[in-house]
Design a protein that fits this description.
The complex is a heterodimer of chains A (385) and B (306). Chain A has helices at residues 3-17, 19-22, 25-43, 48-61, 81-90, 94-105, 109-113, 118-123, 126-137, 142-149, 156-166, 171-183, 185-195, 199-202, 214-231, 236-250, 255-279, 283-286, 289-317, 340-352, 359-384. Chain A is an all-alpha fold and 385 residues long. Chain A has one domain. Chain B is elongated and about 110 Å long. The chains are: A mainly alpha (385), B alpha+beta (306). The interface between A and B is large, with 49 and 36 residues.
């Protein structure tokens, strides 16, 4: 072999390893999706903490390369760095860690002060089971339908956890769909809230919540864990970590642990979770007709969840005395997009009455939604796993 | 100190019990008395075998348990220590050879069966307590096995849970693998058949979600009532006043938060009635994203000295 031939063959081999040689139109579509997510996060400020890692992860996961070269770089190649990081998603241990952080961040006072708001969090879970029924109608198997329907709970970690157990092959699409719609909550929910409420209802002023004692705050995670997990033991990984994180926060003697759980640990896991979920959307796995179905179902699930929350409050009001009526604008907060959907309730309330602050009232159903979606996930896991 | 020691002792006993609990889930799952042409051992021989199954969802370490075919000598074959293969993963099987030749390795026992008559086999924990036993019927032909109908299921020694496997299609002998091969998830199949439109699932699941949160809600309603009562009682006791007076003082007779804020603002603006704060300094910490990595000084080498 001459030196020229040697150079040519090596350069040809190198060319065949490059992204340019291996690229397909699907890769460019996914790269465009990744760039869109990053744009949404940076320019529109839509859930940047999630969309930047996911968007960049999509770019990472869709760099074309020769999958047969055995370079151990792809997220699905066993032993690759990305594959090791992806284990937290595929084995489902990132979501409980995120729940630990959520528990350590969340103040359940609003819920403890007004326990009936928990039922709004339960009612919003209709979104999950409405989507489940439609998914079955579209021809998905029950386990796949359950994994897709959980998008309606508006809870990314729960969606990832459940799909990793029920339909691992659909996990990428489900996770991206769940996080996308969570980011789009400010766009999706307000029209629904306006549509199903009257002007008079939007002006309802709720009494300020009573002060909650430290003891009640400490009892809440313990009783909450025992009651919910005795009913649905399959919810232990998520509910256990959620209430554990909350006890760290409220007990007053583990401030350092609570700080770590709510700051450093959550940040680290969010980075890894977002990036690896994004990277798992490799064009070959992601761009399928099923994915389009999942996105459509996810969108529908969000609409049903928000609608059922608002309608449930209206129904609930029929049985409440005039002085204790609930503003139906907090019904949307039953989905567990914390605190985004509670903020939307507040903003919409202020739009109609600048002195009507609904944030703290909306936080009640919002955190109840977190518990509700974890319970719903436990139910689906128990029935279909 | 004594109290703590007792607690520690209880914990140690509980931990020991947990280990035992794992072993209690071990089951004799399938047995072959005459192996003439079936499963071959690691020496290329056809020998009788005993299949054990870990029915637990956690791994179980089986070293130091006993396998015996003699009720008078339940510690006939102790499973040796120190072999990594004696740790059975969750819901998995392990084969022991009843070839009467324990010198061949951990899984070769000193047990032999007598064809044509009933053979009893039992497994015992390290303390000699029974884990599982079964009596193999005498009519087992060569190449046939006696197996649990469903892996690990059925009471100890219950022949109803067992059947003879002839080795024919649909009634296969399954050494070191599941007695019932499951290709699909039965629960999913059941939901697909019984609940085609998902309405049943929606009703059941929503009932569960509502009951869980309703339970929590009721519980906290009660806790808050008790809490308020206790607080009032404590307040009455500490102030030395009647409980009714405390209740009266707790009842708000005014004035929303907004009204209080408006009154305070009005006082501030028109009467200049606020605390003197001239000497109060409010220092806000200014965060600078500093890291040694962005400091130029760390990128410079020391100047060489002449």
């Amino acid at each position: 072999m001459s030196f020229g031939e040697f150079l040519t063959s090596n350069l040809t081999e190198f060319w065949q390893l490059t992204g340019f040689y291996n690229a397909t139109w699907q890769h460019f579509v996914m790269i465009a999706v990744g760039l869109f997510f990053i744009w949404l996060a940076i320019k529109k400020d839509f859930e940047p903490m999630l969309l930047v890692p996911i968007g960049f992860g999509i770019l990472i996961g869709n760099i074309p390369f020769n999958t047969e070269a055995g370079l151990e770089i792809g997220i699905y190649e066993q032993g690759s760095v990305l594959n090791i990081l992806y284990n937290g998603v595929s084995a489902g241990w990132y979501p409980p860690l995120i729940f630990l952080g959520i528990g350590a961040m969340t103040d359940f006072s609003a819920l403890i002060a007004n326990p009936k708001l928990m039922l709004i969090g339960a009612s919003a879970q209709f979104g999950i089971f409405g989507a489940y029924m439609v998914a079955l109608l579209l021809g998905f198997a029950p386990d796949q339908a359950g994994a897709i329907a959980i998008i309606g709970g508006a809870d990314g970690p729960t969606a990832i956890f459940l799909s990793s157990k029920l339909a691992p092959n659909l996990m990428g699409a489900i996770a991206v769909s769940a996080y996308s719609y969570m980011a789009l909550v400010p766009v999706i929910q307000p029209p629904i809230m306006r549509l199903f409420t009257t002007k008079k209802e939007r002006l309802i002023k709720m009494k300020p919540a009573r002060a909650v004692t430290q003891n009640e705050k400490i009892i809440f995670p313990i009783v909450g864990l025992l009651l919910t997990c005795f009913v649905v033991p399959s919810g232990i990984p998520l509910l256990g970590m959620l209430f554990f994180g909350n006890l760290l926060r409220e007990c007053g003697v583990t401030t350092r642990l609570a700080k770590t759980a709510s700051n450093a640990l959550t940040d680290i896991v969010t980075i890894l979770l977002g990036m690896t979920v994004g990277a798992s959307t490799q064009a070959s796995e992601f761009l399928t007709t099923e994915t389009i179905g999942i996105f459509a179902l996810g969108f529908m699930a969000f609409i049903i969840a928000s609608t059922s929350g608002v309608l449930f409050v209206k129904l609930f009001n029929l049985f409440l005395p005039k002085s204790k009526k609930i503003n139906p604008l907090i019904g949307n907060a039953g989905v567990s997009a914390v605190p985004m959907s509670a903020r939307i309730s507040n903003n919409l309330g202020l739009e109609y009455d600048p002195s009507n602050y609904l944030l703290m009232h909306a936080m009640g159903p919002n955190v109840a939604g977190v518990i509700g979606s974890a319970v719903a996930a436990g139910v689906l896991l128990g029935f279909l796993a | 100190m004594k109290k703590y020691l007792i607690m520690l002792l209880v914990l140690v006993m509980a931990a020991a019990n947990a280990q035992a609990q794992g072993r209690k889930s071990l089951r004799i799952n399938e047995v072959m008395v005459q192996n003439d042409s079936g499963y071959v051992d690691d020496y290329g021989r056809y020998s009788a075998w005993i299949e054990l199954f870990n029915s637990n969802f956690a791994p179980v370490e089986i070293s130091s348990i006993f396998i015996s075919n003699d009720p008078e000598n339940v510690k006939k074959y102790p499973v040796p220590l120190g072999d990594v293969l004696t740790r059975i993963p969750k819901r998995q099987h392990v084969i022991f050879w009843a070839d009467g030749n324990p010198s061949r390795g951990t899984f070769h026992t000193n047990i032999t069966f007598t064809p044509g008559q009933e053979n009893w086999i039992g497994i015992f924990d390290a303390d000699g307590s029974l884990i599982d036993e079964i009596t193999i019927p005498a009519n087992l032909l060569p190449g046939q096995s006696y197996a649990r109908k469903i892996d690990g299921e059925g009471a100890i020694g219950d022949p109803e849970a067992w059947e003879i496997r002839t080795g024919e299609m649909g009634n296969t002998v399954t050494p070191s693998s599941a007695n019932v091969l499951r290709e699909t998830n039965k629960k999913v199949e059941m939901f697909a058949e019984q609940d085609e439109n998902g309405f049943g699932m929606a009703v059941i699941a929503m009932c569960i979600v509502f009951s869980a949160l309703l339970l929590l809600s009721v519980c906290f309603y009660i806790i808050s009532k008790i809490g308020a009562k206790v607080t009032r009682r404590n307040k009455a006791a500490s102030h030395g006043i009647d409980l009714k007076e405390v209740e009266k003082s707790d009842r708000p007779n005014h004035d929303t938060g907004e009204e209080i804020a408006a009154i305070a603002m009005a006082l501030h603006d028109h009467l200049d009635a606020h605390d003197r704060e001239n000497t109060v300094l409010t220092i806000n910490k200014v965060k600078r994203a500093y890291s040694p990595w962005n400091s130029k000084i760390y990128n410079m080498r020391d100047m060489p000295r002449h």
